[in-house]
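Quick one: structure for this chain?
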Amino acid sequence: MARGRRRLVAAARGPRRLLAAARRRKRLVAALAVGLLLALVAVVYQAERTGTGTRPNDAGSCPEAALVCPGGEPPADEATPGPSTSSAEPSATESPSPSPTTSPSSTTPPPSGSAPPSQGGPGCTSSSPGACGFPDARSTGPRIALQRHDTENMSVKTDGMVIKGWDIHGSLDVYANDVTVIDSRITSANWWGINLRPGFKGLRVLHTTITAVPGKGPDNGGVDYAVSNMSESSVEVGWCDVSVFGNALSMGQGDLHDNYVHDIAAFRNQGGEWQHTDAVISGGGNKGRLTVRHNTLLNAVPVDRGASAALGLFADTGVVSNVVVDRNWLAGGAYALYGGGPGATGIQVTDNVFSTQYHPNSGTYGPVAAWNAGDAGNVWRGNRMSDGRPVVPEPAP
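Got it. Here's what it folds into:
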């Protein structure tokens, strides 16, 4: 009788156990579904937070002439060559990358006189160039992580070579055509940071920091040229952060745009004299056009230690001609601008801001000297002090 009762109880418990097991399975399935949903939400959130998800390109921060957008990868046919840092011979002998094929149209400015207040127009009276839309440390220099290259004084001899992402401790002496240096840093103890030799062409230096260590250069401890153009062809220098060098950007023909030149270091040259300092300098006798557009050019060196100009157009080696100086921020020097002097022709100086950040009249003695108003093609228009006063040059003697 007892055994029969136990069988009945066991038979009754069987369906209840099955029902309980089914309920546990349902709860487990529901819990797994909720966990998967939470994991998916976390992945989407992390992708949006870190920027790894798909998003539209910021065209404003990726100039067309800059080869590759920030954070992007170059196409397979634009692989950047890079020599081993342990190479005994510091010549660039790697397979060349193709020359840049992108259009430089993004650097073409709006018509003269149309700059809005954010680009240094009449409504901007700040003492800071960055606040007025001019280049500063935030808008210049490399946009990517760099890899150290102890090149020392390196000769570049490969046509079409692209140097990208290098932290160069040394200098580049270019004996090749269509070389591009982009998104890099150069710390030089040579006469120059980058030099283009006679007979070669097509050098471009973009989004690069070019500097030196004071007291380590060959000119009695000084360093002379950040970018030197010894060729008769144009050199493009854009979006670069340049400091320390005495005559930072030195060339008769070229396209200098959107650069930040600052903290020039005074030094006595090998002759024992204070080296003349200029943020941009041209010695005249140029064969092509020199365009200096939308740069911040600062020369805080005192005149008794060699300061010449923020932008110096000098007739040292020939008559100055065919120069465009447009929408720059100029400050410092004996005069902020030397305008070419007697015989200068085709000099267009338009819509520049002469800053009072170092001196009440921009330069120690005034904003401009050696302006030749009478010769053909010389134009002076829309230039003003950073406090709004118009700049009217005195007649050249």
